[in-house]
Design goal:
The protein is of the alpha+beta class and 206 residues long. It is 17% helix and 26% strand.
Length: 206
């Protein structure tokens, strides 16, 4: 099967990294929401921090990878173990997700490595830091190719520091970063799951 990405981008051979954009959704329980797993850390900007593991019924976690309905991304144990075995990725890059009985049903992707800033390369404008907690968010203005598909840019410095699994320095809406994988992780994932979706990163012209 031809990977979905090859239909959306004509120059994928030049991409050096990829933002995860899994399309399959993993839903929590009907009686739970985002605020059941977080607490507000700042009354001024609304920044929240995770205080509890994400919960989901096992029946909702059948796909090997997916987007969590509050905005994170996750994988099943088989894919998590493969990523750990093949790449510079460890168990610390994942957080277990449970059902209400306390059984592990999935793993949220929680990368340890933070990338070097790339907001200038991508026209992401910084908002003023919060006057109370100092946290900062960025606009998510994006580049688009001639097919209307989003892509990003990365500097040589940031690429040289890139790990196999990363989060961006920049935080966006609700203080969430992007999750970024290396080219070799992308090649592995698309070979196994050709219908998964990503946004490519290209080396910026310096």
């Amino acid at each position: 099967m031809k990977p979905l990405m090859e239909k959306l981008y004509d120059d994928l051979d030049k991409a050096v990294a990829f933002e995860l954009r899994f399309t399959n959704m993993i839903f929590t329980y009907d009686d739970l929401c985002y605020f059941d797993f977080t607490e507000k850390a700042c009354h001024r900007c609304g920044r929240a921090v995770r205080t509890k593991p994400y919960l989901a019924p096992k029946a909702n976690c059948k796909k090997p990878c997916g987007e969590l309905d509050y905005g994170g991304h996750g994988v099943n144990q088989e894919l998590r173990d493969e990523l750990i075995a093949r790449f510079d990725i460890t168990e610390e890059d994942f957080s277990p997700m449970y059902d209400k009985r306390g059984n592990v049903v999935y793993y949220e992707i929680t990368p340890r490595h933070t990338m070097k800033p790339i907001f200038r390369e991508n026209r992401w404008m910084p908002y003023p830091p919060c006057a109370v907690c100092g946290s900062q968010q960025f606009s998510n203005r994006d580049y688009e190719n001639d097919k209307g598909e989003i892509y990003h840019c990365i500097s040589t410095e940031a690429l040289e520091d890139l790990h196999d699994l990363n989060v961006t320095f920049e935080r966006f809406s609700t203080h969430k970063p992007l999750i970024v994988v290396s080219r070799r992780v992308y090649d592995f994932l698309t070979e196994k799951y050709p219908r998964t979706h990503y946004y490519p990163f290209y080396l910026s012209k310096e």
